[in-house]
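Blackboard transcription, Thursday session:
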Amino acid sequence: ETGVTQTPRHLVMGMTNKKSLKCEQHLGHNAMYWYKQSAKKPLELMFVYSLEERVENNSVPSRFSPECPNSSHLFLHLHTLQPEDSALYLCASSQESTVTEAFFGQGTRLTVV
Amino acid sequence: AQSVAQPEDQVNVAEGNPLTVKCTYSVSGNPYLFWYVQYPNRGLQFLLKYITGDNLVKGSYGFEAEFNKSQTSFHLKKPSALVSDSALYFCAVRDGSNTGKLIFGQGTTLQVKP
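(Written on the board underneath:)
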């Protein structure tokens, strides 16, 4: 248990569906991240939130929409996804401005059909 | 820009033998380096980090890593491998911004055979 919890663990959705991934951390961190991990590809950083403000969006398609309502919660809203969006989505948190490690959730395995 | 390279897609070792997983980095400024492990369908677990100080860093599960500034390397090592060490290993460098985001290598699969 890392202190970062992601739900659901598994999600199957159709291309016309709307769903949301949730991430919650109880570590008192002030930065949160979404990463995408596809088969045979390195970890891709999608979004960075610092002090609840989005500070980075790495050319992610608009069908992915992040939300950070407070420092403990991070969401990834999904709509009209494509099959190639199937991947493991990892949430992480850390304390910015300090040289500490990031803590990762268990991930949500997303399958788009 | 910060970057990390893991030159081996897979490393195979026999149980009880020493293991090394290689990592090289490129940074501007001080290197803050990390190793993570990932078991199937799980998130990443932190193993160890180098910030400053001794070049040999000790971490979880008997792993250690050696920081070599002249070779810009941060190789992960363990004196005696276990079958349960079989997993995917990631080297990472901290981005120079204040957000603390990590830039990851492509990962190395470690296979330890009995």
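Lecturer's comment: The interface with chain B takes residues 2, 4, 6, 31, 33, 41-43, 45, 48, 50, 55-56, 88, 90, 92, 94-107, 109 of chain A (CB under 8 Å).
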